Structure formats: structure tokens, C-alpha cells
Amino acid sequence: MNARFAFVFALAAACGSSNNNTSPDGGGPTITPSVSIAEPSVAFLGRTLDVHLAGYGTMWTDATTVDFGAGVTVMKVTAASDTGLTATINVANTAAEGPRDITVKDGNTTETYKASFTVRSPLTLGMIQGTFAQGSLSVLHVDDADHDNPFDSTQAGGGFSAVTYPNLNVQQGGGIGANTSSVSPFGADFLMFVDVLAPAQKNDLTILSGPLSSTTSFVAPGALNVQARMPIDLAMGDTTGMVTTPYDSTLYSFAPDTALTVHELALSTTSTDQNASPLVALLPKSGKWSDLTTTMDTTAPYIFSTKSGDPMYLVYWDGGGVANYSFKISRKSTAVTGAMEAEDNGTQAKANTLATLPVLVQNADLKMGTADQDWYKVVVSASDFAANKHIHVTTFGASPEQAVDVLQLTGGTNTTSINTPTGPLDNDAGVDIVDTLPAAGTYYIQIALSQGGLFGPPDPATSAYNLFVRLEP
After folding, report:
1. Which pLDDT band, with edges at 50, 70 and 90, does 418 fall under?
2. Same domain assignment for residues 376 and 419
3. Which of 322, 326, 319, 128 is nearest to 227 (CA)?
């Protein structure tokens, strides 16, 4: 027993030194037993602790019972004296928060200590920055009010990889997810994700701290209130929006054409703030962040192909917290001729002819671990050349994270490249080349895998690609 609790019990003993409920001569007033002290008087959800009670005029024993109300289980009661009890309790995560009575029963005697004990969440939530609604990103700061159980701020990563906090995680549910941004012993920041189809309701926030073998839970019941919202239709052409508050988000949706089409999405903003970090996230029909298709910024358009016609969702968000600027999302679709790679097209002499432009070569493949190349040829007519058309070649992934990253364009028998990129030019590690043509005639497209880079050769999964070729003014 520490000094503080010893003092509590000593005080209680002094106040109740007479064990009789009448005055010494038997004719005085009756002493009414009562509870005078509860220490500690606050308990956090999900915790087990000892609560020390001091009484006046009581005759407590180990058989005395203590009741803290629903959601609080009394595991053990120990009488330190006639006027001192220790109750070991467990507070459920689902216990109602707020003040409550302590009821002590000893035989036929009941003592009630009114509104003397408080149950509360161990978390104190700051204001969520951003729109916490269906199909959103936002930022949340949380403080740990339970100083007996600091957050586990263990770090991993660093160097060339991002710093992570593996021992502090938000338990996901209700269409809500979170990434941990930073952790200190008594505070943490999270990037929050809400799925497009998440129920519009209040959800508990549960944080698990510590290694898997020994975690401590921190629960804030009903703290995450998902707001309902309808997506804005993303029509063809340009759609403009406005960022009015930091970390706000805007939700859009569109249904791709069911015909064989290549879709292009591009983003631009009016912000000149160096801290601005504009971002568009593309989600499939599930609307789930765990199924994220891609993210795009202002550096390059995103090009993809699908024939499903299933709705897709876009979420615009500025991760830098910059506000008071406008943005534009441009949507373009191009009907294409479908084509497949025909092996062997590993040399210029065996190049596949792409006869009808625009054309989409689907699910082509480069053989890993070899010097495999793929060659294609395009004939530019005199009229197209006279119209000053450019050849535009783009590779993009046949599935997530699959794309080539070296492409070379040559004209006629000339082996000098018109354009040879040195590495990925965005579009999910694919390349995007627009070039002026020196003359009408036959042009060859040569595709090969990168042979290296800062992090070595490409992953074996990156051998598949789609090839989109068109002539543009």
C-alpha cells in the first residue's frame, strides 16, 4: 500500500474509531455508516485496477460487497480494516461513460456514495481535420489521458523507406481505416480513410498499443461519426472544384464506357503554395480504400482501360492542408481498336503492324531474365503529316504495378531514336511520349525492360503492359 492510500485508511480509521453505532452511554444519536473516500475516483475503459474505499462508522469485512454499476466487474474485495476496503475491478470497453454511484453492502447495511466514481475513455480526441464522411481522407490527433499506459512509440524503417510505428494501430471496422503518421508517449496522429459505401453512423475508435503478444486497448466509444454524402458526377471534359478548408475532400464518381476505350484523367490546380500536395485517389466500384486503383497528382495524367462499365470513384484531397484554391479534373475517353501482341516480334524486321489508330495493344508481355524486346510499326500518311500530327505512345499497366519503363521510337531504317526516355515518366511506372514526326512513312516502337536503376532491376511482376498509340494534332 503506498503512502497516499495508507493515509486514506488512517483517516478513515480515525473518523470511525468507534465500532458501535450508538454513543458510549447508549443514549446518544445513532451513527449512520457511510462511504467517505474513493481513490482513485476515475477509471478508464478497458482497465483493471484497485479502488480504495474509506468509510465512517462501518463494519466492513472480506464478505462485504461493492457495486460500481453496469459494465464494471468487481473481481475481489479485501477489507483492510472495519473502515477500509480495496475493490479490484475490471472496466469493460463497453461500459457507459460518466459519473456513477458506489454501493457497499455489509449484511443488512447498505452505503451509497453518490456520483463519486467516473468512468471515461483513455483517449482525448482533437478535432478531425477534413470532411469525415463517406469517401474521404482526413487527419486526426489523439491524446492518451491514461498516463499509466503510454503509447508504444516504437519506430521501424527510415533511410530510404518511410518511418512506421508497428506497435500502434487503429482497429479497423465500419468501413474506416487509418495509417499512423506519428506517435509520442501521450499523443498520436493518424491519416483516416472512410470507404465510399461505409455506413453513415457513429463508430468506436479503438487503438491497440504494444506488440502482438501484449497489447493495451484504448477505446473512445462513438467517437468517429461518419457523415453521409453523395458523389458528384464527373462528366466528360473539365470539372472544377474548390478547396475551402484544410484537409477537406471532394467525392466524384463516373461510369466508364462499355466499349473498348482508353480513359485519361488529369489534374491541375491554381495553388502556388509550396506546401500544397494535391492528390486524386481512384477507387473501384467497391469504394474501398483497400482496393485503391491508383493515386495521381499534377505531374502526369493517369491512363487506363476497362470494359466493365462499373462505377468508379475519385476523391480529391490536399495532403498538405493547404486551402483557398481551385482545382480541375479533366476526363477524356478515346474509342480504340483492340490488338494483341503476336510473337515473335523481338526485332524490327518482325514488328507487329498497328494498322488502325488509335490502337490499344492489350496484355503484351516481355520475358523476364532475357534480352526480350517487343517491336511494333505504324504508318504515318502524307495527310497526317501535312496536318502536323504528332505520334503519342503510352504504356500502362495490365494490372496494378505492372508496366514497362523503357520505350524507344525510331523512324524508317534510321536506328537513331526520336525519343528515348531514361526511366519511368509516371502513369504507374509506364512511359508517355509525344513526338513531332520529321516526315511521312513507317515508324517503329521498340519496348524493353529497364536494366536497372537506383534500386536494381524491375520486379518480375512488371513484365506485362498495355500499349496505347495514337496520332494527335
Report:
1. low
2. yes
3. 128
